[in-house]
Amino acid sequence: MIIDCTNCNKKFEVDPELIPEKGRSIQCGSCDHKWFYKKESQETTSEINDVTIVDEIKQEIKINEDATDKKEIIEEIVEEKIEIKQNNQEKPIKKSNILNKIISYLIVAIISFVALIIVLDTFKTPLNNIFPNLELILFNLYETFEDIGLFLKDLIK
Fold this sequence. Notes:
- The protein is mainly alpha-helical.
- It folds into two domains: 2-88, no CATH class; 95-156.
- It has helices at 39-63, 70-88, 95-122, 124-130, 134-156; strands at 2-4, 11-13, 24-27, 34-37.
- It has a two-stranded antiparallel ribbon with strand order 1-2. Strands 3-4 form a two-stranded antiparallel sheet.
């Protein structure tokens, strides 16, 4: 059985035996939205949607009655309706997901920068032959970090 979240329209496959006839509370695993679900409510809405689609197809066939091959028309119309239905069910991108991605990229960038500094500090003697001012640059970098730390301590006080 497939259940749609009423908030974000995400689809979940659920074993029908887990839902009693009286219904039960369900929580979406994607957006944490909670709602009460009854088997009948989902089935009737899907039946209504199917009936309306069939009615729309019948109306379009009546419009195109002068065509010779009705089977091809029906197949084209059904494909169009399925495509429209799938496009309508795509969920929009949430701002919180974008913010989480930005924060995760920022954390990765900071960790990578710290790792680079550690590698440069570890191998500063051999690298000093290739980059003559590396020791001076690292010293200035350490002093900058100390100044930033002191600045933050003053802000907190």
